[in-house]
């Protein structure tokens, strides 16, 4: 009798369990639904995200405001600089790679820069200023602008060397190594440079200067005067007066090549005389 009651109670308990009454497919669907509900409950909602979003938005606004304030301050500083005396040129100076034949004021005038000019404007126009300097003053070979202590501008120049003096009338004009004739003149030579006379063509003079620059210093320094004396047979003849008392006849196109032999020829001469280098090389006394 006890056995029958136990079996009935087990059967009744099984009937009260809802899962035991479901088919396997329905039980699987119910498990998936419960898992989805649990996942939804653990997933953060928009309410949970709001504080983080507010914090990010605040940081963005602060960084944006800081950027705008920085730009505004920079604009104010730049504007204040340009309207203040600190933006103007305070001092102008001149330096050269060698002993310059130009005075400091001449170089400054050639640049056109004034102490009332803006330093920034001067730097922006640096190329046009240096080009203007070489055009206004032929002795300037190249120029460069350097700023010191924000307001002091140094004009660093390179000048052409003076290689001779050209006689025109009673005035002596400097001849530069590029064949250009200087505009400033003197009544008497103020240097030991060779004197050039009777040169009317700029082209012929430049050819002569080019040949002269090829000479060793020992030979070029021994020439006192060079005269252009063309003939029908030799339209490029030059007549030289030497510091040792001799005279030389030569041709411009072969001048540098043949004049290098002059020291040895002069050394063999027993008396002062003339050395002819037009055709060959020979000498004869006065």
TrEMBL record:
Keywords: Cell cycle, Cell division, Cell membrane, Membrane, Transmembrane, Transmembrane helix. Residues 29-44 have a biased composition (Low complexity). GO terms for biological process: cell division. It is found in: Cell membrane. Residues 1-46 are annotated as: Disordered. Its main location: membrane. This is Cell division protein DivIB. Belongs to the FtsQ/DivIB family. DivIB subfamily. It comes from the Bacteria. The keyword Flavoprotein does not apply. It is a single-pass type II membrane protein.
């Amino acid at each position: 009798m006890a056995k029958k009651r136990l079996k009935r109670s087990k059967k009744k308990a099984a009937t009260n369990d809802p899962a035991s009454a479901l088919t396997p497919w329905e039980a699987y669907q119910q498990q998936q639904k419960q898992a989805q509900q649990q996942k939804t409950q653990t997933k953060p909602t928009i309410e949970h995200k709001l504080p983080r979003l507010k914090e990010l938005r605040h940081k963005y606004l602060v960084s944006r405001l800081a950027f705008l304030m920085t730009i505004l301050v920079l604009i104010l500083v730049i504007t204040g600089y340009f309207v203040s005396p600190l933006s103007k040129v305070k001092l102008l100076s001149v330096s050269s790679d060698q002993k310059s034949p130009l005075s400091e004021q001449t170089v400054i005038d050639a640049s056109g820069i004034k102490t009332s000019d803006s330093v920034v404007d001067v730097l922006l126009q640096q190329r046009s200023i240096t080009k203007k300097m070489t055009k206004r003053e032929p002795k300037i070979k190249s120029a460069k602008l350097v700023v010191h202590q924000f307001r002091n501008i140094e004009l660093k120049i390179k000048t052409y060397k003076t290689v001779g003096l050209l006689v025109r009338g009673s005035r002596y004009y400097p001849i530069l190594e590029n064949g250009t004739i200087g505009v400033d003149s003197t009544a008497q030579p103020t240097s030991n440079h060779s004197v050039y006379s009777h040169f009317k063509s700029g082209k012929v003079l430049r050819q002569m200067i080019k040949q002269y620059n090829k000479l060793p210093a020992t030979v070029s320094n021994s020439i006192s005067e060079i005269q252009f004396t063309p003939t029908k047979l030799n339209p490029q003849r030059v007549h030289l007066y030497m510091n040792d008392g001799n005279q030389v006849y030569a041709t411009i196109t072969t001048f540098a090549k043949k004049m290098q032999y002059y020291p040895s020829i002069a050394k063999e001469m027993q008396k002062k005389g003339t050395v002819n280098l037009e055709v060959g090389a020979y000498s004869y006394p006065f």
